[in-house]
Amino acid sequence: MTTTTTVSPTATSATTRPWRTFLVLALCVGGFATLQNLVVPVLPIIQTDLGTDTAGVTWTVTAWLIAAAVATPLLGRVGDMVGRRRVLLISLGGVMVGSVLAAIAPNLEVLIAARIIQGMGGAMFPLAFGLLRDAFPRERVPSAIGAMSALIAIGGGIGAVLAGPLSEAIGWRGLFLVLLVLSIPGAILARTLVPESPERSPGRLNIPAALLLSGWLVALLLPLSDGNAWGWNSPLVIGLFALAAILLVAWIMVEWRSKEPLVDMRTMISPAIWPMNVAAVLVGAVMFSVFAYFPRFVQVPTGTGYGLGATVAESGLLTLPMLATMAVAGFLSGPLGRIIGFRAQIAGASGLIVASTIALAFVHATTWEVALWGALFGFGLGLVYSAITSVVVQSVKPTETGVASGMNANLRTIGSSLGVTIMTAIVAGSATGMDFPTEQAYETGFLTVALIGSGAILVTIVGSILAARRVVDDTAAIEVPVRA
């Protein structure tokens, strides 16, 4: 069983200034969060500049996604063991090195290598949550986590909005230098102002479990990312899915039997955690489906009979209400959780997501209508995103914060790949030749997103019932000896 060690008392002294820690971490994490979608809008420009094809340039996104997925839980676990600030700085170093390499990349191969190195930054998310838990008083942790979660979600949206205008001003290579400019002061401030974790999880990194975890993540995310290009019934896609299933089962067996698991399976299947992990998959699918197709939807020409004909810049402006309400909701999540509870918050906010996507499917004749539904969607998403993270972080031991929140983030990434794949199959599949997707395809796509969001409501309600029963059982187990 894992035990806990504590570092010197001086490590806790910085908790007297928790919001200073928050602001520094916000600079580090917020900058990296923009990288999630910063490259996607400029892929055609990169393709032309480097003289490659669509399949090749797509690997700049796929390589980053897979690298981040592998690094997030692994480095999160290492942070729990050797110190979260130390590993945060290592992750930031990877981002900076990758950014410089990407900015000067002479060809596609070097750019892909740079993106893999940048993927180390994915570990900053769980490491930041753990450092916030260390720095803040228990009653203020939910507010801090909610605000940080909102910044992460907003960063992804801002990246998509700013990529076009920034690339026109400074070129696609300049986008990576912007990230470097943000990362350098973030690293300096984190080294000098953020306290190291006061508690450590002893033991060694479980290498077999780490290899199996990396293996099934890669085998799963590869076909999810490139299945449309390879063909879903191709031997390669089917083989990778089969390999992912085999490695997943092997990983679970190794973790279950290990005395020093990388990820404690007993924690992952607890009534407090597994519903949040399932909800993370569903919310990830909803979130990135809308992020990917909302701008395309409003850019459809008016000549189609249903499009709004927005320019790239105008579609960015129509996305701003979504990002603004997401920010507000993230900061409200913590205080609201103290009133109604986080699970009730997740269920209710998922209802807002469902309602807004249904409205988007059927009521989209004017720009103010889609902006309104986008704002409602952003508010619900901000609450859900923040509340799920709060439940996970507060449901595990402090020494498991990094790996638990890292796995939750990974499942959200898997969900995002699933969601975009499904949405692409529905919407893009209706377009033939140079035609635009049909209105019915977008309606079906948004309704499918709503259905997925409904699953988050259901699993959260089930989780709440199971968690309530566990509390009753634990109370009964304690009271029996007392009466005896």
What are the defining features of this structure?
Growth Hormone, Chain: A, disordered C terminus, 484 residues, MFS_trans_sf, disordered N terminus, EmrB/QacA subfamily drug resistance transporter, mainly alpha, cell membrane, transport, two-stranded antiparallel sheet, transmembrane helix, 3 domains
Count the beta strands: 2
| Contiguous helical run count | 16
Which CATH class of the largest domain applies here? Mainly Alpha
CATH architecture verdict of the largest domain: Up-down Bundle
Q: Based on helices, strands and strand pairing, what is the structural class? A: mainly alpha
What is Rg? Answer: 22 Å
What's the pLDDT, averaged over the residues?
84
Number of domains: 3
CATH superfamily of the largest domain: MFS general substrate transporter like domains
N→C terminal distance: 30 Å
Question: What is the third-level CATH name, the topology of the largest domain?
Answer: Growth Hormone, Chain: A
- Unreliable segments (pLDDT under 50, ≥5 consecutive)? 1-15, 471-484
Give the strand content: under 5%
User: If strands are numbered along the chain, what order do they take across the biggest sheet?
Assistant: 1-2
For the biggest sheet, the summary is: 2 strands, antiparallel
Topology order in helix (H) and strand (E) letters: EHHHHHHHEHHHHHHHHH
Subcellular location: Cell membrane
Membrane topology: Multi-pass membrane protein
Domain Major facilitator superfamily (MFS) profile: 21-471
Main location: membrane
